[in-house]
Specification:
Layout (H helix, E strand, L loop, with lengths): L21 E7 L2 E7 L13 E8 L7 E8 L7 E8 L2 E7 H4 L1 E7 L7 E5 L7 E4 L5 E6 L3 E6 L12 E2 L24 E10 L2 E10 L12 E10 L7 E8 L5 E2 L5 E2 L10 E5 L2 E8 L9 E11 L5 E9 L2 E6 L13 E2 L4 E2 L5 E3 L5 E2 L13 E4 L4 E8 L7 E9 L1 E8 L5 E9 L4 E5 L7 E9 L3 E10 L1
Parallel strand pairs: 24-29
Antiparallel strand pairs: 1-2, 2-3, 3-4, 5-6, 6-7, 7-8, 9-10, 10-11, 11-12, 13-14, 14-15, 15-16, 17-18, 19-20, 20-21, 21-22, 22-23, 25-35, 26-29, 27-28, 28-35, 29-34, 30-33, 30-35, 31-32, 31-34
């Protein structure tokens, strides 16, 4: 019996919908684990939900996740937006965003999985992010279309008023608030939301969701877009922030077109996450969208590179080096493999829900699933002729498979071509899909070894629901 792939990108089970994930490595009970704290998309018709739950993984295997249960519910039963959790001493502090982010409560626990209790109302605001510095001082950052920060008192809840700073970085114009600040607008590097502070290599790094309001043709962006996680950096925690760059973008694989522009292959949406170092490797946690709205988001993870130049600037993302010196960075690619850095095991049963490339846009999509069962698959639905569904990357090892098998349903009849390395790459298998059948397979006409990208190209007049696939030697 074949194993079912249980963790790729998204890294949690496909039935779980936790966006806004803040990753934190904590040692508790004699074990270091990576904990993730985020909101919880359970309302289904609006953002987030009425509880926070906790998942964690051992630091030596980011594909082996454990569910710890509910850690907090709102004091007033309201919807909880994006939280953060930090440790100071032997206590863990949760910053809970009650009332859809209108009221930030600081609760505490001696266990990183909670429950978090004794909540205290704070003066922090939307999307709180907290940094505990090397000297034990704590700094909070928050805001929406305008950012704010301050040092916290030892109670980890009260702002030191004399340290309060407004607009440490420029922000996007706020189309939802006629009375919004306009004196600190930055059209090029605009803060939108999702404050996530870190200290890296002695530098203070402010990760946030950028909202591009000017076109970025090389990434296929031509209208206001807040699918990015970006950063600025400083040598001081509350001021002096300088230009950084973009770390991730949830618009899928960006196809490079002949005219030099880009084309997105996944429906972008809002974004929120943070950076974490595990065993010498840095990762960015972010989220993607499923369904046809932003109410069933899923946590994603990608490895990132970090370097500091001779000029003191910190580079984060996909870095370009000249003579060993970092000179620029760009967003890391969005993949299906996530923490499987050598690629997903091609010989497991792989859900179509791990696709990172679904084109053309706004046609086929990953259908959200909520059944809490091992092996539940999130299908790609509404597939018409001309649709391509891609996965980056699979690991085939040193011996090529002989066959590829697909589980799907089809109305009418369609032809599927399996391509390697590119959506226009070499065809290595082809088969017909007919209505009434649910399993399809074909012999490979060419060998595949190593870490490769795989694309399923659908053609014909039918309509398909693509559930899963696998390869066999």
């Amino acid at each position: 019996m074949k194993d079912i792939l249980k963790s790729a990108n998204p890294y949690l089970p496909l039935w779980e919908h936790i966006p806004d994930g803040e990753p934190r490595v904590f040692e508790w009970g004699g074990e270091k684990r990576l904990y993730v704290y985020g909101s919880h998309d359970t309302e289904r018709s609006s953002y987030c939900g009425r509880d926070y739950v906790v998942w964690s993984a051992p630091v030596d295997d980011l594909t082996d996740w454990t569910y710890h249960g509910v850690c907090y519910t709102a004091t007033d039963g309201s919807i909880l937006y994006a939280p953060d959790v930090v440790q100071k001493g032997d206590t863990f502090y949760l910053y809970a965003a009650e009332g859809r982010g209108a009221k930030i409560m600081a609760a505490s626990s001696k266990n990183p999985a909670g429950p978090f209790e004794n909540p205290i109302e704070t003066k922090l605001g939307f999307d709180p992010g907290v940094l505990v510095d090397d000297d034990g001082k704590a700094y909070a950052f928050w805001g929406f279309c305008g950012c704010y920060c301050a040092e916290l008192e030892d109670d980890m809840a009260t702002i030191k008023e004399e340290t309060f700073r407004a607009h440490p970085i420029g922000h996007v114009p706020d189309p939802w608030n006629k009375n919004a600040d306009t004196a600190h607008i930055d059209l090029r590097d605009a803060f939108f939301e999702a404050s996530s502070p870190r200290k890296i290599g002695g530098k203070y790094v402010y990760v946030y969701s950028k909202r591009y309001v000017t076109p970025v043709p090389e990434l296929g962006v031509y209208e206001p877009n807040n699918g990015f996680l970006s950063y600025k950096w400083s040598d001081s925690p509350l001021e002096g922030y300088q230009d950084g760059g973009d770390i991730s973008f949830n618009g899928g694989e960006i196809l490079k077109l002949p005219d030099g522009t880009g084309q997105q292959t996944y429906r972008w949406g809002n974004n929120h996450g943070g950076l974490v170092e595990i065993n010498g490797q840095w990762y960015i946690f972010y989220h993607r969208q499923t369904g046809t709205d932003e109410f069933a988001r899923q946590g994603m993870i990608e490895p990132v590179d970090i370097a500091i130049g001779k000029d003191g600037k910190i580079y984060i993302g996909d870095i370009t080096y000249v003579g060993g010196e970092p000179v620029s960075s760009k967003p890391v690619e969005m993949t299906s493999s996530g923490a499987n850095v050598n690629g997903i095991d091609a010989y497991k049963i792989i859900s179509a829900g791990y696709a990172c490339h679904i084109s053309p846009l706004h046609q086929a999509y990953v259908k959200p699933v909520y059944e809490q069962a091992d092996g539940v698959s999130a299908p790609v639905v509404n597939i018409k002729g001309g649709t391509t569904v891609g996965f980056r990357y699979l690991q085939f090892g040193t011996n090529s498979p002989k066959t590829v098998s697909v589980s799907a349903r089809v109305k009418g009849q369609m032809t599927v071509r399996v391509r390697v390395d590119s959506y226009r790459g070499k065809v290595v298998a082809e088969f017909e899909m007919k209505e009434g059948d649910i399993a399809f397979s074909a012999l490979l006409t060419s060998g595949i070894i190593g870490r490769r990208a795989i694309y399923f190209e659908f053609s014909g007049e039918g309509e398909a629901e693509f559930s899963s696939f696998t390869f066999d030697r």
